[in-house]
Amino acid sequence: MTGSSLVAATTFSYLRDMKYILIMAFVLTTLNAIAQKAVYKWEDELCLYEGTYDAKKVTKAQLKACYRLALQNDLDINTSPMVFKPEDIQSRLQPEKLEEEYATKNEQLKKLELPQTPFWKGFKAAKLKEQQQRYEFNRSAFKAYKEVNALKEYQSKNAAAQRYTTILLAGGDTLLKEWKELRKKMAERNGDPERIIREYEARLASPERLNYAFVDVMTFGWFNSANEGIELAADIYPSEMVNKEWKKLFIKTKTIHCDEP
To answer: How far apart are CA 174 and CA 244, in angstroms?
Structure first.
């Protein structure tokens, strides 16, 4: 073989090898790109959705955690005192359920593995803060229904709640006066105002009137007002923002099916 033939053969072999390498690189790149795409399905009250995501940017576990935090809302504290009559204090209050719920949900919330972005970090921190405040508030309410001095332990950020605390601690005529005003306001907002007034007058005539007054002012006065002082994650991260950040986790999303509302 002449020198020129040898060079030509070597060049051809080199080009053939390079073509093979380029083809293989293209195939591997394509396969890799396909492997990055995965599908995640979720639902709300009415619809089922499907999203395609890049598995190299976000994991399925992270999507599940985001869904639970942002859309499922099953980490909220729901155990709270429901007292409407003095006898409810002994029969309906179960503070141990609050302790169990908080211990479980607080641990679950802390362990959520979310994408390490400013939004998801901040949203989780806001949820933890709300959860803690809700727990402390409900725990104080459970205690206060049985021992009014427990209200001293809780400092609400709501001015009306602080006012109700002073009235409840004072008791006596101060409490009865506030009770009367509270019942008037309740009657004005109720569809059957006469029933509210009749109920008030009957309880006022009862030897248990101070207990009735205490329950009403605690439940419809202090509790409602102090509840408004809790810092909600939704006030910082409204649903529109959360939904927008949720969709950012996907390459594309689509609605699969919706039930009639």
So the answer is: 50
